[in-house]
Amino acid sequence: MADDIHGKRIAFLATDGVEEVEYTEPRKAVENAGGTAELISIKDGEIQALNHLDKAGTYAVDKLVKDAHVASYDALVLPGGVANPDFLRTDPTAVRFVRDFVASGKPVAAICHGPWTLVEAGAVKGRTLTSWPSLRTDVTNAGGTWVDEQVHVDGTLVTSRKPDDLPAFCEQLLAQVAGRA
Questions:
Q1: Where do the DJ-1/PfpI domain residues begin and end (predicted)?
Q2: Is 170 designated active site?
Q3: Is the pTM of this model over 0.90?
């Protein structure tokens, strides 16, 4: 991953129940490439990450989604975990932020259950993406095409299935942000 993204700001939208490695690994990739990562959430303070269904670390929220503006960021990352995107997709402010981000044409990267928020935002119709297999019906019912691939890129949308796919996911995220994809 030789991409240099100095000066780029990446929003990570997450809340309680985020799959820890799906937040920490892309964040580390962004920071190692010179970018700035910012944790955006629907709640203030800290969020509780999980390792599958077991409690993992907590992470300080940088900004509430209600105070975040798409124009301030160069890309958006939607980590998974089962609970995290389920909470996000029921929050109108989070859904609007995702919808506006997709409409901006800037890169959006979602992994595992992360695409649930894309479905809720009406952002998968006519798109091809991958996710955790249980989202297949949701993606299809929302007008998208679901594929079983390690990483899939559809324009500026990057998606992956699971934590094992993180190296390819991070590589494509950085390529999008660097403008090389």
A1: 8-176
A2: no
A3: yes
Considering the candidates 6, 69, 112, 152, report the single residue annotated as catalytic. Answer: 112
Active site residue 112: yes
Of 6, 113, 152, 170, which is the active-site residue? 113
Residue that the structure tokens 């985020």 belong to? 18
- Tell me the per-residue pLDDT of 14-60, one tens digit each, with 9 for 90 and over: 999 999 999 999 999 999 999 999 999 999 999 999 999 999 999 99
How big is the chain by its Cα radius of gyration, in Å? 14
Matching residue, tokens 């800290």:
46
Q: Give the CA distances from residue 41 to residues 66, 82, 141, 144, in Å, rounded to whole numbers and listed in that order.
A: 9, 16, 27, 26
Q: Which domains does the chain have, with CATH numbers?
A: 9-178 (3.40.50.880)
